[in-house]
Design a protein that fits this description.
alpha+beta; 19 strands
């Protein structure tokens, strides 16, 4: 068992988070102090609690961000330092800086000033003075709720569930392992016999519409991509829910008649698998370039907590960038009027567009289970499931013809961009719309013609990633210039 499990579950601290689960993001950072009875010295180090086993911490004193200081007992000097006007004020930064300042052993670069091994807390505060609550435009202003974040007291959507232990149900999804296949049989007998399992939810149990953003909440009849949810298991703990989900036996058959899995743009071109063309936003009158995809890596994965209320109402705490969209999705799946669904979002734990639409099926799943089992339910995707069910930014392929004068002045450019979308379009359409808007970049070029087509691939739905379409759009003329100048 890892240290983070004990810190979170037994002591109830919210400071350490399990982000990546691999020691990379630092969300789980804590301080470990050890006393040497021979020398009488105390050694201090920061550790990743998601990786450190309980045994490896035997004899150590573990301090979280709350232990350094908080709003009730007073903040540690580092938690109030003006360093937070330039750094993201989350708990790992605070814990690391506290270790730096008190150990005098690590360097830290801040505002071009290298603070070496002689750094003390007082020196840190002098170099990074606290910002005034109200300051002129040219002065730094303290970020809203920064001290709550720095002390680990700030509550995120996943923290709401910690207050409901003992009466809370946890969800895990049974996911497809086929990119395109027909569903023939689902055997959940082994899963339902596992102690602690409350029940299973399939498409047949949905009282309203089995559709969120044009995609089924649960696969029905066939699966369209690897990782697509087929059923949900509700259980008394997350571990039991995941074990039970792994025991569900899903039998798949061949793809629907006349279809085969489409994964790459070459597959889409061969099969003619494209969404209907969007109405062009602009028409302003070779070579090629492959546009890479991009995944989200927000620190808190997709999560929602659903609580049944009186009179058939429901309260959703959702890590979402689109509260009204979550309300509509939940109401649609449950067949409820909008005013029966209240959605609350305190903070996101990172979004970058990934929680604009992909938070909707997670919230709808939690709401569905809470309604069917009449109990509060938390549904939080593991990092692996988050990657499997959310496609991120569209990859693409640019092909263009260009005409230019001997002097190098561009006369005309005709470009076609193929974007690799998922099995359901979702908000991938934003990539195309903004790509067209950004394709002329900073250049004055009247002879420019750009078209965008979306390939329908057997992949998870793609959505907004920060600056949707703009990154791909500016590459159009940049690649053209690269070709022209190289010639």
């Amino acid at each position: 068992m890892c240290t983070s499990t004990i810190v979170l579950a037994v002591n109830g601290e919210r400071g350490p988070k399990v982000g990546c689960g691999e020691g990379g993001c630092g969300a789980c950072t804590v301080l470990a102090d050890r006393f040497d009875p021979v020398t009488g010295a105390v050694s201090r180090a920061t550790i990743n609690s998601c990786l450190a086993t309980i045994g490896s911490c035997n004899g150590a004193s573990i301090t979280t961000a709350e232990g350094l200081g908080n709003s009730k007992c007073g903040f540690h000097p580092v938690q109030g330092a003006g360093v937070f006007k330039d750094l993201w004020p989350h708990e790992p930064v605070v814990v690391d800086l506290a270790a730096v300042a008190e150990l005098n052993a690590v360097t830290h670069l801040q505002q071009g000033v290298m603070l070496g091994a002689g750094l003390t807390i007082q020196q840190l505060i002098e170099v990074c003075p606290p910002a005034a609550a109200v300051a002129p435009v040219h002065q730094p202003v303290e970020k809203d709720a920064v001290r709550l974040q720095a002390s680990g007291e700030a509550q995120y959507a996943g923290d709401v569930a910690s207050r409901m232990r003992g009466r809370l149900l946890y969800l895990a999804s049974v996911n497809s392992i086929e990119a395109l296949a027909s569903l023939q049989q689902l055997d959940a007998s082994a899963a339902l016999s596992l102690p602690g399992v409350t029940g299973i939810i399939t498409a047949a149990d949905i009282p309203g519409s089995n559709s969120v953003m044009g995609a089924p909440l649960l696969a029905d009849g066939c699966v369209e991509y690897v990782g697509q949810p087929i059923a949900f298991i509700a259980a008394a703990s997350q571990q039991v829910a995941e074990r039970a989900a792994a025991l569900v036996c899903v039998t798949c058959g061949p793809p629907p008649a006349g279809r085969r899995a489409v994964i790459t743009l070459d597959d889409a071109l061969a099969a003619g698998a494209f969404y209907e063309e969007l109405a062009p936003l602009m028409q302003i009158l070779g070579g090629g370039y492959d546009l890479p995809a991009q995944q989200h890596f927000y620190m808190e994965t997709q999560v929602a907590v659903a609580e049944p209320q009186e009179d058939g109402c429901l309260r959703l705490t959702s890590a979402t960038q689109s509260l009204d969209a979550v309300q509509q999705a939940v109401a649609g799946v449950l067949g409820l009027p909008f005013n029966k669904v209240a959605v609350v979002t305190k903070r996101l734990g990172g979004g970058f567009g990934g929680k604009a639409s992909r938070s909707m099926p997670v919230a709808a799943a939690a709401a569905l289970a809470a309604t069917l089992f009449d109990a509060p339910v938390v549904y939080q995707l593991s990092r692996c499931d988050d990657f499997a069910q959310n496609g991120g930014r569209c990859a693409g392929r640019l092909r263009y013809d260009v005409g230019f004068e001997e002097s190098g002045r561009l006369v005309a450019v005709k470009a076609e961009v193929l974007l690799r979308a998922g099995a359901y379009l979702d908000l991938a359409s934003n990539d195309g719309a903004q790509l067209l808007a950004a394709s002329d970049s900073a250049y004055d070029l009247s002879g420019l013609h750009v078209t965008v087509k979306f390939a329908r691939c057997n992949l998870p739905p793609h959505t907004i990633v920060r600056g949707p379409g703009y990154l791909q759009g500016v590459m159009v003329l940049e690649q053209v210039w690269t070709l022209v100048l190289a010639g």
